[in-house]
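pasting for the record
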Amino acid sequence: QATHREYKINNGKSDMIKKLLTLLLMAGVLTGCQAEQKKMLGITGYNYTNRYIDGFSVNGQGGGNVLISEDHAGGGGTTCCIVLRPDQELPVKVSVEWTYGVEGDLRTGKIFRQPETHQMEVDLVGPIPKDPTIFVVHFYPDNTVQVEVAADYPKPRIVSTKSITANPT
């Protein structure tokens, strides 16, 4: 038989365990809420230069290669991922590194231009949409870069100046 004193001691331990479990559950819920604030964004590039980009990265996260953009598309595929909080205080600096591919004649093997690597610190100025999905890097002909976060793939910022000749018939 448990005495009244033993019951109080065991009941006290039980209360302490209940409080500890409640505290741990609350911490887990709060941590889960904070993790939900972060968004995993795909990374894509829009290339307005006249050179193929063999690869690029944002804060060390690979962005793949980027063909020269067309009037309706960016030119690069999407890679995974960069993590960003939608409530991120702006502006925030990001590091973008890119390498232009080698240029040459495949038939003769003659190389016209060697690969060139560039790096730039860029400000993400926003705004950041409520439900962002994609981190976009825009590469310009003067070797400058701009970045944005978007809810969906944006239209290219520069329209190609390629002339289209009519097919004479």
